[in-house]
Amino acid sequence: MLQLINALEAENPKYLRLLKRLFKQAFPRFERKPWRLLCQKAAAGQAELLAVYDRQQPGRFCGLAICLFWRDLVLLDYLAVCPQLRNLGLGRQILPLLRQRYAGRRLLLETERPGSPHTNYANCCRRLRFYAACGLQDTGVAVRLYISEYLLLWTPGEALAGQPTAPPPGFADYCGLYNSLFGELTAWRLHIQELSGNGGNYFA
User: Fold this and answer.
1) Contact, 149 vs 112, CB < 8 A?
2) What would you report as the CA-atom Rg of the chain, rounded to the nearest whole angstrom?
3) Residue-wise DSSP of 21-36
4) Both ends of the chain: CA-CA distance in Å?
5) Which CATH architecture has domain 1-102?
6) Where in the chain is the domain with CATH 3.40.630.30?
7) For residues 38 and 27, is the Cβ–Cβ distance under 8 A?
8) Which parts of the chain have pLDDT scores under 50?
């Protein structure tokens, strides 16, 4: 069974070291936000840097999840499993833990849009099937962020007593998160644009 550990709050600094190492290994440089900036956001309570560990094998580092917060939105900005542990079903265990951790909030993530530049179509579709199997839904929003194109997926948080379920996050929510956390100038430099439609019903 897996567990999530807030690496910035953990007494042992190894959690943060391992998380940073995997972060640099798993994501190309152009996709990585500055590590120092992510740590600053986490220290300010606007993010969590989560190390994934195996409860049954103490000390076994399995992966990472980095989440950003704005209002009731939680953006799963980065999710990675250690290379030697991939294709063992760990990702299917991590996502339910995140949904439980952020119950009552809308969980949002970006996944590469099939057919977009610099992507492998088959790999993109495989990821979409994986996310659908984990209970994520299509928001109907597609965006361009810097040189990459993404579909925005989400899962609603548990409805609070007496309150209606929140709607899927829209493009305005996405821009609001980036503007609030990183400033309008940074968001402008990322050239965030809404694309016209998803270009296909990938969840069909």
Assistant:
1) yes
2) 17
3) HHHHHHS-GGGPPPHH
4) 32
5) 3-Layer(aba) Sandwich (3.40)
6) 1-102
7) no
8) 160-161
pLDDT digits (tens, 9 = 90+) for 174-195: 999 999 999 887 777 888 999 9
Residues in the chain: 204
> DSSP 3-state assignment of 1?
coil
Report the distance separating Cα 49 and Cα 119, nearest Å.
Answer: 26
User: What is the distance between the alpha carbons of residues 54 and 70, in angstroms, rounded to a whole number?
Assistant: 29
Asked if 181 and 41 count as a contact pair (C-beta separation under 8 A), the reply is yes
Among 26, 24, 5, 1, residue whose Cα is nearest residue 14: 5
Return the sign of the alpha-carbon dihedral for residues 140, 171, 73, 2. Answer: positive
> Which region holds residue 140: left if phi is over 0, alpha if psi is between -120 and 50, else beta?
left
Q: Are 173 and 196 in contact (CB under 8 A)?
A: no
Which candidate, 158, 151, 144, 73, places its Cα nearest to that of 108?
73
pLDDT digits 0-9 by tens, 153-172: 999 876 544 556 788 999 99
- pTM over 0.70? The answer is yes
Nearest to 74 by CA among 95, 90, 55: 95
Extract the tokens encoding 107: 């969980």
